[in-house]
Here is the input.
Amino acid sequence: MRRISAFNIVSVVLGLAFLYLPIVILVIYSFNASRLVTVWGGWSFAWYRELLQDEAMLRASSISLRVAALSATAATVLGTCAAVALVRMGRFRGRLFFASMVYAPLVIPEVITGLSLLLLFVAVNIDRGFWTIVFAHTTLTMCFVTVIVQARLISFDRSLEEAAMDLGCPPFKTLLTITLPLIFPAIAAGWMLAFSLSLDDLVIASFTTGPGAITLPIRIYSEVRLGVKPEINAICTIIIVVVAVVTITASFMTKRGAARRERPAFAADG
Amino acid sequence: MNANPKWSWGARAVLLLPYLWLAAFFLAPFVIVVKISFSQTALAQPPYIPVFDLAAGWQGLKDFLTQLTADGYRLIVSDPIYLLSYLKSLEVAAVSTAILLVIGYPIAYGIARAPRGIQPFLVIMVVLPFWTSFLIRVYAWINILQRDGLLNEMLLALHIVREPQSWLSSDIAIYIGVVYTYLPFMVLPLYAILEEMDETLLEAAADLGCTRTRGFWLVTLPLSLPGVAAGALLCFIPIVGEFVIPDLLGSSKTLMIGQTLWTEFFSNRDWPVASAIAVALLALLLVPIVFYQRLQSRQLEGLR
Here is the structure.
C-alpha cells in the first residue's frame, strides 16, 4: 500500500550525497601524491608515512584515546545509574530537578559548559591538564549515555524483573542480575557514543586543558587554522575509519539486543 | 527519595552517584560563572577580583560583597559589538534552522516511506556522519570552498565564473557548514515521528477524496509538528552558541557570540566579561531549552 514517489527517492539520494560527498573528497585527497588540493598527482601513502613521523600528532592521539577511554567508562557508569534512577525509582523528591540537570548539558552551547568547568577548576585550584579534560568529558557524555539507556529501559519488558522479585529477589540484586545484562547492548552503545564524542570535542577540551595535555582535536584545529594540509586529510581519514567501524559495531549491537520496533535511540535524542 | 522503604544502600548509591557528580561538575560551575560575571578584571592569578576567602570570616564576606560589580554586564549592554554578536548568532541560527527544515523534512519523509527492510540502513547512513568528528566535517568543506578548491575548479571548468571566487570567510560558508553538520539532528527526530505515523489516516483521507498532496498538507504535516519542534530546537539552541564553524569558515568581521566569548576569554583574558556573556547567552536560550526539555520528557514518558 505504501507508495514511494520519485520525489521521495530523489530527496533521500540527494540528502545522502550531500552528507557523504565532502567526506569522500577528503578521503580521496588524503591519498593524493601532490601537495596541492586541485592537482591530482596519483595515488600515494606519503602523507600517512609523514604522519607516523609526526611526534606531536602521535602524542596528541595517544592523549585523546586515553581521555576518551577513561571518560567514556566513567560516563557509562554514571549515565547508566542516572537512567536507572530516572526510570525505575518512581517520583522521588527532586526528580524534576535531577532530570533537568541530566538533559541540560545536551543542548547547552559548548562554550558555556567549557567556560564554567574551567572556572570551577580554577576556583578549587586543581592543576589543569589530562584529568581535568577527563572530568569535563565525563560530565558532558554521561548525559548522552543516560538518554540512550533510558530509552532502552522504558521500552523494556518488565515481566522478567517482576518474576525475579516475586521469587524473592531483592530490587537491587534484580537490577544487577536481570536488568543490567538485558540492557547491556544499550550500555555498550552508550559507551561508544561517549568515546567518540570525547575523541571529537574541541571546545570543552580547549577550555579545560593545561600545559602538556594537547588533545588530537586541539592539535588538528591549530593546524587547520593555517590552511589545508594533506597530512591533516590523512589523520582525518584514519579517524573517520575508526569511528565508522565503532559506529557500525554499536548499531549492530543495539539492533540485536533491542526490540524490533525500537526507534534509533542514539543521537535521535541527543 | 524515600518513596520505597525497601531500597538498599545500593539503590541509593545508584541515584546519589550521578546526582552528586552533576551537582559538582554541572551546577556548581554555573554558580561560579554567575559569581565571576559580577567580578572585576584584575592583573592577578586568577585574573579577577574579588576572590572569596573563607578564612577571613564575616568581614571577608562583607568585603567580598562590596567589591562585586555589574561592570561586565554594563559593558556588554553599552558596546554594540556584543549586541551585534548576539543578533548575528540569532540570525544565523534562525536562518539555518529554516534551511535545515526545508532540506531535512523531505529526507526524513523519504526514509520513512522507504521499504521497512532498508529503513534501518538509511538511518545508519544519516547517523554515521554525526559520529564522525565535527571538526573533520567542517574541515572537509575548507577543502572544497577554498580559493583553489574544488568548487572554484568546477565552476571555472563549467565557465560559470571567470575567476576564482572566495567562498570562505563569508556567511554563505557559515550556512553551508552549519546545515551540513546539523542535518542529522534535524532528520532523526523528524523520521522518528513520521515513521510512527498511522498510515490508515492517509488512506481514510484518500477514500474521502483527498489528493496525495492535500493529504500531506492536511494530515501528515500537522501530525509531525512535534518532530518539527524537536528537530528545530535541537538545531537552533546549539547553533546560537556555535564556535568552530564560524571560526573556521566565517569572516572575522561580525563574530558570532560563541566567538566573542572565546576571544574575550583567550585573547583578552577578560574572565568577568566572558562570564557575563555566558550568563546573558544562557538567559537568551533559557526559554528554548526549557521548552525542549519538556518536549523531551513528554516524549520519553509517552513511550512508557
